[in-house]
């Protein structure tokens, strides 16, 4: 974790160098974000400025590259052969079943993609699960939302994804991505060839801007 209260670039470098020295084949590096409905949200600590966090991110990438790690997903680094298949399933818009308090899931069928979530509080979840009523959301993702949902995950992959993956995961034609791809490419956030789509270095640094190009309202304006 970086971007912590009071953390300097030197402190962040010491953390990541120490982690790499332990010989682990996989490391994740996440910038601290303050979530609503937490103590930190109501009593917000002073965090490093945005530019300082950006410097930490670049330093982490460079430090781990020198240590032999491959940067394969926005926040994930692995030694060759040690990429996390579990997480790659998420980033490639694969399916997963959410079981347990607060769990989220995604399931695909021949004619639809669905998302579901469970009650957050363990006691309430257990009581509802006994009645078969633990789901608080079970919805079909509308086709117009699928380009955004897909890119929200796949755009995190440093090497990008094959063009064929979009159709395989969503059931939509690749042309459904085209308005967002054009907008992102014009801003230098995406590069592509007939077989593959990948974020540029700029796209990885401004991931929110890249993904926003695929919001339904953004595509309607394109």
Key terms:
single chain, alpha+beta, Arc Repressor Mutant, subunit A, 3-stranded antiparallel beta sheet, 9 strands, 42% helix
Walkthrough of the structure:
It is built from eleven helices and nine strands. It is of the alpha+beta class and 222 residues long. The protein has three domains: 9-83, no CATH class; 90-141, no CATH class; 145-221, Arc Repressor Mutant, subunit A (Orthogonal Bundle), CATH 1.10.10. The longest helix is centred in the N-terminal third of the chain and has 17 residues, at 50-66. The two termini are 37 Å apart. The mean pLDDT is 94.
Order of helices and strands: HEHHEEHEEHEHEHHEEHHH
Gyration radius over CA: 19 Å
Helical fraction equals 40-55%
Tertiary shape: globular
Largest sheet report: 3 strands, antiparallel
Find the count of extended strands (DSSP E, 2+ residues). Answer: 9
Tally of individual domains = 3
Average pLDDT across residues?
A: 94
Which CATH architecture of the largest domain?
Answer: Orthogonal Bundle
Strand order of the largest sheet: 1-3-2
CATH class membership of the largest domain = Mainly Alpha
Query: Distance between the terminal alpha carbons, to the nearest Å?
Result: 37 Å
**Which fold name corresponds to the CATH topology of the largest domain?**
Arc Repressor Mutant, subunit A
CATH superfamily of the largest domain: Winged helix-like DNA-binding domain superfamily/Winged helix DNA-binding domain
Low-confidence stretches: none
The proportion of strand residues reads 15-25%
| Helix and strand composition category | alpha+beta
